[in-house]
Amino acid sequence: MVIWDHFRHFVASVAAWFTTSANWKGSTGIPELVWRQAELSLAVVVGAIIVGGGIGLVLGHTGRGGLVAVNAANAARAVPSLALLTLFAIVPWISLKWGGFLAAFLALVVLAIPPILTNTYVGMREVDAEVRDAAKAMGLTGGQVLRTVELPLATPFLMAGIRTASIEVVATSTLAAYVSYSDLGTPVISGLNTNNTVEAFAGALLVAALAAVVAMGLGVLQRILTPIPLRRTMPRGLGASAPREAPALA
Amino acid sequence: MGAAQPFFQWSYVTGQWSQISSDLLQHISLSLLALGIGLCLSIPLALLAWRYRVLRPPVFGFASTLYIIPSLALFAILGPITGYVASYPTAEVALVGYTLLILIWNTVAGLDAVPQDTREAATAMGYSRLAALVRVDLPLALPFVFAGLRVAAATVIGLVTVTALIGLGGLGRQITYGFNIGYYTPIIVGLVLSVVLAALCDLLIVAVQRLAVPWSRSSRRARVR
């Protein structure tokens, strides 16, 4: 069986790629590439939480301008990340700053803000008006209402937004390798460019594994951070990974 | 290209229009094919998952797995399986994979949302199971299916650009071309046309929904958010 031999040979080559010690060492080694992808993704998500979460909280708390922000965020979703990555990568004053980090960071932040902003805003607006009024009647100031009442109640939504954004960012940061920020996308892109299917396949397995770990880890975190009385209403199991909203993976 | 190139040059659009329009057409055909196949696969899968609860974990698990794998990685993983990375089958299998979770999820949610009273009324009026499904359950689930279709269309149209990295075309070809020669205009052409395409596609789906489901005036409510 020619196909069977071909298949066995391919699997053996991929296994050989993983056991080659050179692929585990130095600046192009697997641990370093994983770290670089994690570093970029974490920076992006933190940046997006500050900007998107901040805007969502303020708009949700005041209840003003939300529709405009949500619509703008939805429009931003339609922008292909590849276009932003390449555009930032060739703008002279951004291009190769910090080894391509800045271009990748800016492009991915644009991708990560919409899900966090919309979910935070929706979560804030879902807080029962009576609960909010009761808190005010008890003499809580606006800031206290936000911190001790609205924020905990909006946590499931906020976390859903952070989770969606993180999954998208980790997935899309693979594309950053195309614009010279090296991470786990690097073996995939270089493998595709040189017709080295083994390298591309092995890199892709690592990317898929990282994406799965992030998706599952954040699912657990989402449960832990949700106030206990709210946990019952959360979707369980696989359902939790389904898109509540327009996803824009890449 | 010099450092002081203008942000956008119309002369590129007029000069290269034949290439741009052929990329646009390929983008549209890749997207439509993925959505069409995605719909054809997801409706029966959703019906199975809805009717037989035991099938839900495997169906959603399979679709979630495909959904979680980043597209570029999925291309590289599918390449050796379909035989050749830079091919329509590789691109389409991956793109269809991304539509499945969205479409199945929304269809099942729509079928689950049919009120029990309505279903009982259908039974009382003598509808068989199949007749009730075709004439009661599915029509009532349509707003959800359309909501899923809108999300799936937006996702696929954005993702098709990535197929340029495996040597296919679509508007991603404009983007990679602009990047390779350090020229803004083609990237912006690719970006703007893909956003416009997504917006037009969304309007089209809403229009079809208005015709097919005239009783659900507000498509906004059905959209799972």
Number of domains of chain B: 1
Q: How many DSSP-defined strands of chain B?
A: 0
CATH architecture of chain B: Orthogonal Bundle
CATH class of chain A: Mainly Alpha
CATH topology of chain A: MetI-like fold
Into which percentage range does the β-strand content of chain B fall? under 5%
Biggest interface reads: A-B, 54 and 55 residues
Structural class of chain A: mainly alpha
Profile the largest sheet of chain B: none
Q: Fraction of residues of chain A in helices?
A: over 70%
Provide the helix percentage of chain B.
over 70%
Q: Please identify the oligomeric state.
A: heterodimer
Structure commentary:
The complex is a heterodimer of chains A (250) and B (225). Chain A is mainly α. Chain A is built from ten helices and no strands. Chain A has a single domain, classed as MetI-like (MetI-like fold, Orthogonal Bundle). Helices cover 73% and strands 0% of the residues of chain A. The C terminus of chain A is likely disordered. Chain B has a single domain, classed as MetI-like fold, CATH 1.10.3720. Chain B is built from ten helices and no strands. The termini of chain B are far apart. The chains are: A mainly alpha (250), B mainly alpha (225).
